[in-house]
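Quiz preparation item.
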């Protein structure tokens, strides 16, 4: 029997960031390495938010995250590593907000459905007790 560990998406983000940061720890291009790690983490955050239906429930935040990630990638090409890192951090924050909004909206929909089910059950109980 083979054991296949699974990782939570956040753990995967941290692992990617740690690997990228470790790989470049000895490099003279520390700002580039740091920006590269930030972009990788932000890309994963945007992907996770999209997978959580971020575009449906938080389209403004998802659009902002994607635009900032695009700008961060352009800053990397332009070798503006500080701007790239800052934009990637902002993209990650926007993506996390989008994912949180999507998760909240879905949880609220489930809660509303449960409340409706409870109301229906109470109404049925009331009718059954009134008929006695």
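Solution:
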């Amino acid at each position: 029997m083979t054991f296949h560990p699974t990782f939570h998406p956040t753990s995967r983000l941290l692992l990617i960031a740690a690997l990228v940061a470790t790989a470049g720890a000895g490099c003279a291009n520390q700002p580039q390495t740091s920006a590269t790690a930030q972009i990788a983490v932000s890309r994963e955050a945007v992907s996770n938010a999209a997978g959580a239906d971020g575009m449906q429930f938080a389209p403004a935040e998802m659009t902002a995250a994607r635009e900032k990630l695009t700008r961060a990638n352009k800053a990397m090409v332009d070798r503006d590593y500080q701007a790239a890192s800052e934009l990637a951090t902002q993209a990650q924050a926007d993506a996390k907000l989008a994912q949180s909004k999507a998760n909240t909206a879905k949880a609220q929909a489930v809660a509303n459905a449960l409340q409706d089910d409870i109301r229906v059950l109470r109404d049925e109980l009331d009718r059954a007790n009134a008929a006695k």
